[in-house]
Write a structure and sequence with these properties.
globular, 2,3-Dihydroxybiphenyl 1,2-Dioxygenase, domain 1, about 260 residues, alpha+beta, 4 helices, VOC domain-containing protein, VOC_core, about 15% helix, Glyoxalase_6, Glyas_Bleomycin-R_OHBP_Dase, 8-stranded mixed sheet, 2 domains
């Protein structure tokens, strides 16, 4: 995408990226699952490719730096008009800046950070690369959700850093908060209490649209991935939680209207 494309309002998830140990095997998995093709991208953090679907750039995959022992996980990037100022705000509000701010060639400027509960996310200030295109098509990211112990502990952090509006789901046994930008829900925080995975802790999770969830789940297994939950029906449509061969978890969903 080019600079002439509409920029994302601050706080809007605009890109997802995955850091792995084996780039070739990961490309093969997602290429077969989602029909992605790949082009080289900025190399500031090491070997990196952008996934394309019908000509749209939809996601990034890079090689994990050898000196970093981070979980292999999909990471959403949230839009910012000034990533340096956002980095300062993250620190001031109790978060941690792990990488950056740094320029990714002429594409834009980025930060990789974690919230006070330890969930990792990216921040993207667009230049030539605005973010993901073709959103809503099968094989594209359509939603991002923070899984954490409880919404109250981190909601104020994200509201302070990105200016989100908040809309809690009123339920006695469901701790869920929708984050909105300019009146539109763009992401959510899901508090799962003691259900938080001990091996992962608080984390962001990405949902990818698919034509047929059951078929996608079967394909994940054939390609060497794993099924973690589902398929099952929800208020957002039929979905499942799966993991790629390196263990990066993500969700596949056939949306019932807006996710």
């Amino acid at each position: 995408m080019t600079e002439s494309a509409a920029r994302h309002a601050p706080g809007t998830p605009c890109w997802v990226s995955l850091m792995v140990h084996g780039l070739a095997g990961t490309q093969k998995f997602y290429g077969a699952l989602f029909g992605w093709e790949f082009l080289p991208g900025p190399q500031q953090l090491g070997p990196y490719v952008r996934a394309l679907l019908d000509g749209h750039e939809v996601a990034g995959i890079g090689v994990m730096p050898q000196d970093r022992h981070l979980p292999v996980a999909w990471t959403p990037y949230l839009a910012s008009d000034d990533v340096d100022t956002t980095a300062d705000t993250i620190r001031h509000c109790g978060g941690t800046v792990g990488v950056g701010p740094l320029d990714a060639d002429n594409a834009g400027r980025l930060v990789i950070a974690s919230d006070p509960a330890g969930a990792v996310f990216g921040v993207w200030q667009a230049a030539e690369h605005i973010g993901a295109g073709g959103v809503g098509l099968p094989g594209t990211p359509v939603w991002n959700e923070l899984v954490t112990r409880d919404t109250a502990s981190v909601a104020k952090f994200y509201q302070a850093v990105f200016g989100y509006g908040e809309e809690p789901v009123v339920s006695a046994d469901f701790d869920y908060l929708s984050l909105s930008v300019e009146g539109r829900s763009v992401a959510a925080i899901h508090g799962v209490g003691h259900g938080l995975p001990r091996d992962r802790g608080a984390h962001w999770t990405t949902f990818f649209e698919v034509e047929d969830v059951d078929e996608a789940v079967e394909r994940v297994g054939e390609l060497g991935g794993h099924v973690l939950r589902g398929p099952y029906d929800s208020g957002h449509g039929r979905m499942a939680t799966v993991a790629d061969p390196e263990g990066a978890a993500f969700n596949v969903v056939h949306s019932a209207g807006d996710v």
